[in-house]
Amino acid sequence: MNEVNSQRILVVEDEAKLLQVLQDYLADAGSTPFTLRDGKKVIPWVREQQPDLILLDIMLPGMDGLEICRGIRSFSQVPIIFITARVEEIDRLLGLELGGDDYICKPFSPREAIARIKAVLRRLTSPGHAAPGGGVVTLDENSHRVWAEERSIVLTTVEFKLLEALYREPGRIYSRGYLMDRIYKDSRVVSDRTIDSHIKKLRKKLAGLLPEMELIHSVYGAGYRYEPVPVSGNSSEHHEEGP
After folding, report:
1. 131, 123 Cβ separation under 8 angstroms
2. 242: confidence class by pLDDT, cuts 50, 70, 90
3. pTM score, two decimals?
4. What is the rounded distance in angstroms from the CA atom of residue 99 to the CA atom of residue 210?
5. 132 with 148: CB under 8 angstroms?
6. Does the bond joining 33 to the residue before it have cis omega, within 30 degrees of 0?
7. Each residue of 65-94: pLDDT tens digit?
8. Residues contacting 210, CB < 8 A, separation 6+
9. What domains can be seen in the chain, in order of their start residue?
């Protein structure tokens, strides 16, 4: 089945020609495309229409894509793929930390955009699972939620994939390089500190869900491991962030 079929996809792009091409390709792929060119109109539209995925240009009139993403993430976890001509690492990192699920660099082919959309939707519609993570929390891949009894939190795609990799084998140490390969399948060039930044945000969210437990630990010079340990116990490793 074509993952784009019947999906309602919003394309936010101020270049008229590119917008039309993307709209045509999405329609040919079986989705229902919607288009906006003014950044200020995006958040109200998303609140009302609730699309299945958003292709979001970063450079927009009225409001830029990063600010739009921040606003959307305050009420929705709809998948967001950034479109950008700004290739600096900080823009990529910032966009993903704000809750973006992927990005496409201009210039790109419409086929690449369709492939990225399929990949993101495939991840979000694959069967949920609970990996053997020590029984403290449960992961739900369908919603990117982490559950602890009756409480839950929602993670970004990057955060969820990072936790999922660690969670599968409690106690195993994973290097930053391995974790980057799990998160970034397209071999993009990013700093090792990208993982540290995501781990920091992930820990903060997990602490809000389970303040009495330390789940992710740093192993100096090696990487990270998942192991549920009471905060009052021996969890001094987690303060060591350096390689």
Report:
1. no
2. very low
3. 0.56
4. 22
5. no
6. no
7. 989 998 998 888 888 999 988 766 555 556
8. 136, 137, 148
9. 8-125 (3.40.50.2300), 138-239 (1.10.10.10)
